[in-house]
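Fill-in record for NOA1 protein.
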Amino acid sequence: AGAAGAAGTAGAVGTADPAVAPAGAPSCSGCGAALQSADSGLPGFVPGGRAGGGSVCQRCWALSHHGRALRLRLPPGEHRRVLSAALRRPPRHGRGPLLLYVLDLLELPDPVLPQLPALLGPAVPAAGVLVVGNKVDLLPADGPGHLGRLRRSVWAACAGAGLRGAALVDIRLVSAKTGYGMEGLVSRLQRSWRCAGDVYLLGATNSGKSTLFNTLLRSDYCKSRAPDIVDRATVSPWPGTTLNLLKFPIINPTCDRIFRRQERLKEEATKTEDELSSEEKKYLNHLKKQGYLVGEVGRTFQRQKPSTVVDFDPDALSYSVDEDPVHSPKKCEKKEEFTQNEIKDARWCFDTPGIVKEDCVLNLLTEKEVKLVLPTVAIIPRTFILKPGMTLFLAALGRVDYLQGEKSAWFSVVASNMLPVHITTLSNADAIYEKHAGGELLKVPMGGEERMKEFPPLVPQDITLKGIGTTEAVADIKLSSAGWVAVTAHAEEELLLRAYTPKGTALVVREPPLLPYISTIRGARIAGTAAYRTKKPPSFVENLKTTGSR
């Protein structure tokens, strides 16, 4: 979170919404929490009584500067209360809000999606739900048409949650981080929704809502001056980062603006990578390392700003992780504000608090462990061939035993590249876990015997599967939010497996699998081991002529 934007006359911009926070109370520009200096364990804490306008709370400062998440005592149900209060407000402009539900594709079937109808209820006059399948860049293409299969999986999850028919406006697959699919999402929103009402970003904690909010903020979806006035939401891997409602004003997509935007998109689509500037190439290569699918988010409507001299203050950047943020006393710059005319009839896009996932392994982990578990770059699948009587560990967070079967089967791990996979015999598995859980071999959790004393034990669930062929997985064994193991077996081969996750977390058998041909993304077998060499498919850049093909 950077320095806060200014408040307009129609309510705080980029801060807490008046409907859910005391009117006039200064709020954090990173998470929207009302600023306070009384209790460091509650949201919005600013040390030393510096809770004035333009501040960020200690939590957002620590997240953005050091990736360090401060534990907060957030009362149960607080996220739901804030969200429900906002959604149940009387419709503005004669129409209920459009709900943009952000779904983490890695979490399918989404554990929060079934809660959506109850959260909304009959009292919410919503105009519909547009589901955004986020983090598509992290998943490798396991064969032709993989995006179509992913989209059908999202459709099935929506139907299973009771979201269908007119209530489901559309499904879009995007990466809020790399920009893939974002221009298409903006065009879809402008064509179908135009400027008829407000838009709310909903979703589970850590689904990427705040990243999507930030990307939309620098796109053609918001008013041209908004990025200069509205601060971005604090983004981190720690679940539940956004504590209150942050918002930006939506631009009115007039016919002229839509025409100008389409002309820009057509012009950009004629470019090749060779025609990009050195800075653009550098940024594009950075994104290619981050994800398999990459896109560019441009801006058609932006005003020319006069060049300014950057006032560099090294003292303001020199604080350690244990020090508090201090604002430079040199001068107080006049902050830019929206005019009354700009916001009097504005429609707003709101980022909302994340809906907490229950039975989630992330709730058991420290911030360091969360950083290792949550994938932030393209996932490289790891495939192993196991015989009956062998065991696969995914860190110390999940375990799959191959108990019975006639032939070897393939087990493909789709999880953060930082999480270790360990293969052993079934007879040694318990001893391996007892000795190495909490240690370097299994890596997560970390902290040795003391950490494991407080960590829940692994509990088993027996699974029976029947293979459908040596190139197509029959099912995914989803080990809560730690990742999943896709199982591929010979046709008609019956397998008896036993999978484990920490007590109190969800283990899901996903049929059909999300990436059915994942086992084919592998190199040669490593001699003397159960492992195959890994292979990373090439990245694809949309709207550029020469980027290679998928």
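KEY FINDING: Residues 1-24, 66-76, 306-333 have pLDDT under 50 and may be disordered.
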